[in-house]
Amino acid sequence: MKSILSILFLGFVSHAFAGGNDNNYDVSLINAALLKDANAVKRYELIRFEIKDPGSAVYYYKRAVTILNEKGDRYGVWSEAYDKINNIRSVDAILYDANGKKVKSLKNADIADVSGTSEGSLADDVRYKFHSFHYKVYPYTVEYEVEFKFHSLMFMPGWMPVEDNNFAVEKSIMEVIAPKDYTFRYKAFQYDKQPVITEGKEKTYHWEVNNIAGMPDEYASPEWQRITPTLVLGATNFEIDKYKGDMSNWNDFGKFIYSLKESRDLLPDEIKKEIHELTDGETDVKKKIEILYKYLQQNTRYISIQLGIGGWQPFDASYVSAKKYGDCKALTNFMYSLLKEAGIKSVYTLIKAGRNKKLIVQDFASQQFNHVILSVPLAKDTVWLECTSNSLPAGYLSNFTADRYALMVTEDGGKLVRSPNYKMKDNVQSRHIKATLDETGKLMADVATDYKALQQDELFSYINAHTKKEQLDHLKEDIDLPNYDITSFDYKSTPSRLPVLSETLKMVAENYAQVSGKRIFILPNILNKTSLQLKDEERQYDIDLPYEFSDIDSVEIALPNGYVTESLPQPATINSKFGAYKIDYKVVGNKVTMVRSFDKKSGKFPKADYKELVKFYSDMYKADRAKVVLVKKEG
Amino acid sequence: MKVIGVCILIGLCSVSFAQKKEPKFGDIKPEDFKSTVYSIDSSANAVVLFDIGSSYYESIQGGLSVIFKRHKRIRILNKNAFDMATIGITLYSGRSTEERIEDLHAATYNLEGGQVKTYKLDKASIFKDQVNKYFIVKKFTLPNLKEGSIIEFDYSLNSPFPNFIHPWSFQGSAPVLRSEYEVTIPNILDFIFNKIGDLPLDINDVTNGNQTFYNKGSTFPTSTVIHKFGMKNVPAIKKEKFTTTLENHISRINFQLSKIDFPGVPSQDVMRNWYAVSKDLLKDDDFGADISRHNGWLQDEMKIVTGTESSPLDKAKKIFAYIRDNMTCTNHSSIYLSNPIKKVFQNKNGNVADINLLLTAALINQGLKAEPVLLSTRDNGKANDIYPVMSLLNYVICCLKINDKEYYLDASHNKLGFGKLDEECYNGSARLINQDLPRLIDLSADSVMEYKVTNVFFINDAKEGFSGTVTTKLGDFESNHLREKLAKESKADYIKELKKDYVGEIKMSDLEIDSLKSFEDPVTLKYNLTMDTKDDMLYVDPIFAEAYKENPFKSAERNYPVEMPSAMNEVYILRMEIPDGYKVEEMPKSARVNLNEREGSFEYMISKSDNIIQLRSTVKLKKANFLTEDYQTLRDFFAYIVKKHSEQIVFKNVK
Question: What is the pTM for the complete model shown?
């Protein structure tokens, strides 16, 4: 214990001497408590961000990680993206064995340098450098020392010492060095101290953590910032390319973004003419928006081009008019221009897109976004438009952008707003199955399902991207039944702000019911069985359940003649803070029916509730799979 | 990396080349937009109207260049095909030589008010992406694209590598109405053509021509052979399960230089035969030159590894394990060394050729008889069994011979046991690199049997109640998959996954996994089961988790042959006491079916004597590859197994 304390002290003392670790990566020096449940241990990390002026900085880090097993291999591989604004100046690396003895060091020729342009992108500046020692005699340690030159303060690095689950940290230090007359901003999470500030020629800020054990990988765990130390940095005034901006607050940051897109809304005359032909006869503003959104969807397509400041500045509306394509910025700006010509004011809106990528540090203005959409504020409400989609209905945002903070950008500056949130009673899946079973166990079923709002997202985008034939092939393989065929199917979409997708299927499942001698075993819950089962173990973190929805199922199966019920499952009702579940079976005449409902709540719950959550899903798992047993009538 | 060097010393320069009658760029008429559905595939998102290419030779300063021309026209039917309007052309761009694109044109055509309107690609919208040190991609997307647009592009690719003729795919993600490729080869060069895929050629013509090449003022008239290949109405490629690789089924043609015959220079046999190639490979610095050298540096290291071991087999096992455990494979696709083997040994990493040639050298160094073997892995497609087409091979293993017994070794996978190969290696035949007898080695999937045995015992235990144990010995491939899986995820996650098979009255516990680290042995799983016996009726699925719950062959249609990784034999044995207080009310009947007479069989034998039920289920496939025509039978066979495996034993309470 004493030795750990002294390491801890040393860490604090040595901070003034950058990189002052003694490079002793002998694995036997690691505190046993850190090894438990860890696949890798960060031995030492120093991140130093040295601000020179609003348009330049040096970003340096030295990071040594001991890889304990194969699961930890990925932390030993180095990879960084760079572009023209932030480029890599130097990379050094050393590989150590378990005793901390140097095995070899990196040679520049071993660093791979590849394009970062993805399949979906036509052109951008992003490239990647990566390197691996390809070593597998465990444990081993890799140390990388890297320096970047930043030609802008628009993006400042953050600090997140714990990089993943089952990843322990011995020591990690974050330092920011800034000229005395430059103010930058910071916000720390799960870090209860203030940074140590020292003043010399410049001002140095120092954060540090020591001895953090590996964290378990838990179902529905809270966002990283709520469970482990992190730090975010932001500039005040900054420069990028030849543009100047300020991000001290959302309003100023919004002004900067607006300055990039200002006066890029000129449309050619023939398009102006088209707009008036399309909308002048219409008086309802919402109808006008729908007409023009449809026009956008039918005439343009998404093509990603991000070069230099073009990563932040939209192409002119005239460019999109000529080429009929653009990225999210260009298409949003084009739609903005169409609406403007029709006399409707709309707002260019930055957002962080992606499923489950909702976290925006709301009281900390900085570049936290990766996408642009358009919002149209009307007297009573706001219409939201995703301008890169050829198929979404006007006014509906999918789980790609729903329910999160977004930055509306106008000439007056930026304003943080919340995008629409779809609730349990919006995200409904209701299904009715009417089926007939014969003596061989063959089931013939008509399945009618309505998917609404977020429940239709995945299927909606699938059917919009695939042919009828592909949809059929997919249906024939993707349903979780042992042996079946789809004889016909249809999809009908009802576009609205809460879109509904209706699916009808005719299905034949040979041997659906198990026929064993004189008995038939039927699983009445044909298509909606929960698959989630949780590990029954001690919980370390609170529970954060995203996404709420409601499922309603009813099934009616006509039975073959001459059978009686031998066993009927018990009805089950589970009411918990996580939701309500109910399933009930009945036999009436020659029909067995099942009614099931599941209302799944979202929200944050204390870790003490975990046992109940495990039980909730395990009871549901069992109840969903209960069987009806029929037996042939004697004689 | 190794390029077969063909040194063409004479500078040549070509005369004009006669053009054939082909569709003209931009020749689009309103009636071209008439069809909205094409009979070849009514559900297609796009149809390639034609794709026409040619390759021919020209003289350049210091040698020959190959010109590859392509002209392609596509009808875009709906927005799902918009991706096809973004085109990337990959070019080799080395330090001293590079491929160049010349005369690139592209345009979109839309029918507007009965008129064809043309939107040309502007040159400023062509982007260059430096993918890595060797390749660049020229990328562009077509403007003004709409549903119903016709797009078109043509270009000429100038390559300074005369031994490489651009391959040609007749088939792609959209159906193709007409695909033609014309290759003109001067008689000074000879190529072998590999046609891949199941579709036949509609055009396969050979004509003769003449071409004169120039060099420093002197002329070299030579005859040429003009090959024309073509297909009509080629369906789109479709992915299917149980195919080795889709690559084997995409209809295409590629070319391998076999002979160079310049006037006044002795003819050079490039392709040759396996005897000559083996001899050269074993002398080649990039392959075998190192393995039979004295390698004194290995001597000391290997002495430490083998210690006092005297039996050749045990010695070999130690060397194998040492190389496997200390070298990391960075690339599982290579037949040439990236470094001399001494360097590989020092670096402790290398590609599959590096590692297995080092292994071969180490075995030889210790007085054992070891030889390299070349093959093509399953995902790399089929190799050529007759000609030494090196470009089709991508993998090296080692053949060790002790007392007339052969062992195939692969030290490039860190969880493979001595004498075991990864399933990727079972792809037909491999070639032993031996200059006296370079024979084929059978590594067909049909030749490997994946054998799995499960034993389940259920008893009335005084303490635990009605409970049992399950012991499953996995096959070699499945053992390996599990080893890989458990290296990446936790045992707790795996237990959670297993538990999903035990619902309701039955619970599993106490999972033990044996031989996870002893790679020579199959992995064995052991766990316990307990069952609640309270109800009046007790329904038991007698095959538990081992039952085929769904048909592996789900799709009703099949386009390609079925290619599984191995033959199989799965045995399940149950011995179950009748639970106390119950009697058998009903149980399944025994059954037996054969697949195509002798290609496979399913046996389900069940019997009851006194208070014991015994069940034995055997699913056997004697081969791994089945014809497309056999698909339905195979599917029915498994459907029957699924049905039989779902049958239950019913116990009735008689207390």
Answer: 0.89
